[in-house]
Amino acid sequence: MLAVEMLRAYRRSFLIVFLICLTAGVFAISLMEKSFLVKSSIRMGAVLSGDQRVNLQPAADTAKLIVDLYLPFALSELQQEKVPLLSLQSVANLRADGVGEHVVLHNQVKAPLATVAVALHEKILRRVINDSVEVADLARGGAQLRLESAERAILDLSHQIENLIALSNKTFEREEAALAQLKDLQQDYSRKVNVQGVGAGGAEQATRELVQRIGSEEATNRDLTQERARIAREIFELRRAREDQIKIQLASQRELSTIREARVVERPTLLPIPIGPSRLSFLLAVIVISLLLAFGTIVTRQKIANFRAAPKDEASLLLKAA
């Protein structure tokens, strides 16, 4: 009850002290150094493979290279540019994350170090882009070699197919001639058998010779048929090989036309970090301290008022006693 009475009696003093302390505390918090999130990102170089794009370098591997290789080099360059060592240590907390076809660079710094952090990002981005150009050139060179090899193979296979087709045509002509010869011999044999009879002395010798010639022509015809079948199989295999090379040729042409170099999609950007747990705790502490100081003020005023009123009370008691 005593505290409530004091608040009622000195509420104006309580509010004035509380507001003054609170205002001073909030102003002090606002003077604290602001923090920024420095962020940038790269889209990796890629090539169209089938129906989807494939990174020329895995994003996760590039992110690891940024932290393990590019970051130390960039810090070394900044040190050569006379950037203080303490500043470099403060911005060395850079991290890189590979997500899909993008690599995101980010780190958190105080406001005075924002320009150093941006310069660090720029140096890393420049190195990554320069190296990605070399990777893209290697990919183009490989695709060009595959294309030229496929074109040479297609030309060579086409010549072989043409030669085999010509050979097959000649073999077919020989086979047709052999068949015609065989047919004539068979007709001659039938005619002699029918006219002279098998038992005639001279006819028997002629007929035997004719049968041998027929057998020889039949063997020749079989050989020519087998040769033409072999040539047909070779032509089939060569055509299939040529189709495979044509597929390689088309894939290489498509690869050459779809190779994409890495590029920066987000330049280093400063993003203010909202009030964090530390600032909120400071604000709560300021409110509590302001309440305590305001309450302490009215307690002090009450004590002073009681002290001033004490002599008057003693004098009135003495008068009553007299």
Please summarize what this structure is.
By secondary structure, the protein is an alpha+beta fold. The chain has a domain at 156-255. It is 75% helix and 13% strand.
Explain this structure:
The structure is a single chain. The chain is of the alpha+beta class. It has a domain at 156-255. The chain is 75% helix and 13% strand. It has helices at residues 2-9, 11-30, 59-80, 85-91, 114-196, 201-258, 277-321; strands at residues 35-43, 46-49, 52-55, 95-99, 102-110, 263-272. Strands 4-5-1-6 form a four-stranded antiparallel β-sheet. The model has no long low-confidence stretch (mean pLDDT 80).
Along the chain, the helix and strand elements come as HHEEEHHEEHHEH
Distance between the termini: 36 Å
Largest sheet: 4 strands, antiparallel
What characteristic shape results from the CA principal axes? rod-shaped
| Unreliably modeled segments | none
Look at the structure and give the mean pLDDT: 80
Q: Proportion of β residues?
A: 5-15%
- In the sheet with the most strands, the strands line up as 4-5-1-6
Radius of gyration: 50 Å
Number of helices: 7
β-strand number = 6
Helical fraction equals over 70%
The secondary-structure class comes to: alpha+beta
What is this structure's SSE topology?
Blueprint lengths: L1 H8 L1 H20 L4 E9 L2 E4 L2 E4 L3 H22 L4 H7 L3 E5 L2 E9 L3 H83 L4 H58 L4 E10 L4 H45 L1
Antiparallel strand pairs: 1-5, 1-6, 2-3, 4-5
